[in-house]
Design brief:
It holds the Pfam family Peptidase_M20. The chain is of the alpha+beta class. The chain has 13 helices and 18 strands. The strands form five sheets. A six-stranded mixed β-sheet has the order 1-2-6-3-7-17, sandwiched between helices. The protein has a four-stranded antiparallel β-sheet with strand order 11-13-9-14. α1 crosses α13, α3 crosses α13 and α4 packs parallel to α12. The protein is globular.
């Protein structure tokens, strides 16, 4: 296996680079044609590695790329999920190379989607090719790669509900997460949920001269800033009533176990250029990221932002606000109480509209399953070290949906690093990580198939 991977690694990288050149940005309609091109590219690669019944499954949005290899219905089936759409690359001027002009520098592939999630999806495609050269896939495999993950996967749940027989499997395998370090593998066993909103504050019926009207009318930008500031107290505790009602509280023993994860606050601060950490009082950095809910402003705008000065009181101000959720919060519950609270704290001089965008549920996956052990054993083989189970701060809403709709647990076999700058300028993915994923995934299949027999 290693020899075939070594002999073909430059080709594997070249193919990935070709895919990364396609700007499959799902959030911006101007890239719709490119999103479809990215799906077609992946479909062709599915066919090349021997997947059967390969198709672009239509949805109300972007198509889902599907293929399968059923070698024996009596054997277990692994359903692989990933996404081929990517985040917008803005601001372009902060990239050191073109976001859709992939380059390899210092052992890293720089491009939008390099890690999230094209690079990690392509590991699975090439792992199938590697297995074909070494006795074949030892169990059944189905691969489903969607094109709307970065905009909430709105059509995926519909597709899953309508195709339960097609997607029937024993476990779901996803590589859209990370690990602690290249010399310390880990497997995420928990993800936070999400409740995402856009808020609009409206004051006067037009922009006003700040000299003629300033001091006599509510300034929507000032009001919005005050409203946002009131959402946290002096201990960075979220002030929305009932927000913490259903938050799962870990025991002292569980918190101690979580904090055994190798972590250095000094390295954490240095990696992102900050003088100190920041967050909810009474919790460590690891806990703040993994087991505590958060509220963050993801964007804020209004008024004049061009060159020079324009002394106006803007008619409107806007913000995008997201909340990361933990067990046992639900996105429906948090969406409702956020809307109620945010509109209630608005002063009488403005009107407020809260528009929910998308959400997802928090999830914790088992560490005592056959599939988790197969993944842990696979990583131990290729890294020479046992992976540590960790709680991730990000959200993959479809993990909870898969459990609800298909009754399946997920193994989050990710190979990215926190330093890969996903969703940011200069996103990158290590060549080491890409190749190590291709090397590790076949071991998962072999371990899993052997354990199920």
């Amino acid at each position: 296996m290693a020899s075939y991977l070594e002999q073909n690694q430059e080709r594997f990288l070249s193919e990935l680079m070709d895919w990364l050149r396609i700007p499959s940005v799902s959030a911006d309609p101007k890239f719709h044609g490119d999103v479809l091109r990215a799906a077609e590219y992946l479909k062709a690669r599915f066919e090349e590695v021997g997947l059967e019944n390969v198709e672009l499954c239509p949805t109300a949005g972007n198509p889902i790329v599907y293929g399968e290899k059923i070698i024996d219905p009596s054997l277990p089936t692994v359903l692989v999920y990933g996404h081929y759409d990517v985040q917008p690359a803005d601001p372009y001027e902060l990239w050191t190379s073109g976001p859709f002009e992939p380059v390899i520098k210092d052992g890293k592939i720089y491009a939008r989607g390099a890690c999230d999630d094209k690079g990690q999806v392509y590991m699975h495609v090439k792992a199938l090719e590697v297995m074909n050269q070494d006795g074949g896939v030892p169990c059944n495999v189905k691969v489903m790669i969607e094109g709307e993950e970065e905009i909430g996967s709105n059509n995926l749940a519909i597709f899953v509900r309508e195709n339960k027989e097609k997607l029937k499997a024993d476990v779901i395998l996803i590589s859209d997460t990370g690990m602690l370090a290249n010399d310390q593998p880990s497997i995420e066993v928990g993800l936070r949920g999400l409740s995402y909103h856009e808020v609009e504050v409206t004051g006067p019926n037009r922009d006003l001269h700040s000299g003629l009207y300033g001091g006599a009318v509510a300034n929507p930008i000032n009001v919005l800033c005050k409203m946002i500031a009131s959402l946290h107290d002096e201990n960075n505790h979220i002030t929305i009533p009932e927000f913490y009602n259903n938050v799962a509280v870990l025991t002292d023993e569980e918190r101690a176990e979580l904090n055994r994860v190798p972590h250095s606050d000094d390295e954490f601060k240095q990696s992102i250029g900050l003088p100190d950490t920041y967050g909810e009082k009474g919790y460590t950095t690891v806990e703040r990221i993994g087991i505590r809910p958060t509220l963050d402003v993801n964007g804020i705008w209004g008024g004049y932002t061009g060159e020079g000065a324009k002394t106006v009181i803007a008619s409107k101000a806007f913000a995008k606000i997201s909340m990361r959720l933990v067990p046992h919060q639900t996105s429906e519950e948090i969406t409702e109480i956020f809307q109620k609270h945010f509109t209630s704290i608005a002063p009488s001089g403005v009107t407020v509209v809260v528009r929910p965008h998308h959400g997802g549920e928090p999830v914790v996956t088992p560490t005592d399953s056959v599939a988790y052990k197969a993944a842990a054993d696979a990583m131990e083989i290729t890294f020479g070290k046992r992976p540590i189970p960790t709680r991730g701060g990000g959200s993959i809403p479809i993990v909870a949906m898969f459990k609800t709709e298909l009754g399946l647990d997920t193994v989050l076999l990710g190979f990215g690093l926190d330093s890969d700058a996903i969703h940011s300028p200069n996103e990158h993915y290590g060549v080491f990580n890409f190749l190590k994923g291709i090397e590790t995934i076949p071991h998962f299949y072999r371990n899993y198939a052997a354990a199920i027999k």
